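hey so u asked for the seq, here:
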Amino acid sequence: MTEQAGDVEQGILWRQEHLAPLPIPTGQPASDLMNLIWRKNEVYLDIGSFPMGAGWLTLHCLTFILAIASIWTAWSATSVADAPWWVDFVIPAAGGGILIPLWYFYIKQWRKPLASPIRFNRQRREVCITRPDGSYWFVPWERVHAIAPSVTNLGTYGASKHGSLVLWFPLEGQENEPYSESKEGWVLAVNPGGGISSMAQWECIRSFMEVGPDAVPESSHTGRSEQVAQHGYLGVWWMLIVQLYDELKAREYGAAFSTLAGLTIFGMPWITVLLTRKLAHIPDLTSPEAVEWSKPLPLDQWTKRSAELEQAIARREAELRAQ
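ran it, structure tokens below
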């Protein structure tokens, strides 16, 4: 059996929701939580994943904690008579032995070229998938599978829920073959949180294809690049410092603490600058066939929805209006 949008599988601590096919409305507003949107125009939407921001925040936080612990140890040792000299180097050496290899592998991964985006053409109702070697193929939009699995973890401090959004595309030459969970395909997986968050992220793609580009938020990379271009790299720091001052002045201490943590513990200005530089030159599709495929079509040549999808969307929209 081929799962379709609306089908749900679940167990005691897990749940798997199928969002497509058929790509019917989820009822959630489109929200690009994972910054997947790289490029958008009237014809196509390019999405790509460069999920290294969380790694930076983690490593920067650990490095910051190590630095503070090292300074505190060195300062404490000065108040202890006859403390051996090597005490000051225990924490830096132990922490550095762990963090230096992690930073090395992180930087190595960061320096790899960006992969080509996945392009959704709303006029042809097709998706262009590009392999790292440059080969590509086209997948019918209504053959794309979107799945939102989530799992609940039980721990000492209670339950926590984790989830992802998985996009599955049939391989070249297999576009019209039946889908099964064991069938190999081209997969893109991101972690917006599962449930409503995954639906909101999926809506960015679904709404572009079924509603139009105005229903989808603009790429955050464009806005960030314009901000850095306008204020400069040091201006990113200055803007957060001014924001911290304004929050303290307004006695918004919770927001001020969050801004301060971003400035110090997590190094948010650095990740803004680094992401801007990394995504300044997003790769494009360059093969002649893909370039021709990406050109706009006269309105009378646009591919239409299937009758099955048309009926499914009508039923779903009626359900949403009745809620």
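The chain is about 40% helix and 20% strand. Helices lie at 53-77, 90-110, 196-210, 220-249, 253-263, 268-278, 288-293, 307-322.
lmk if thats what u needed
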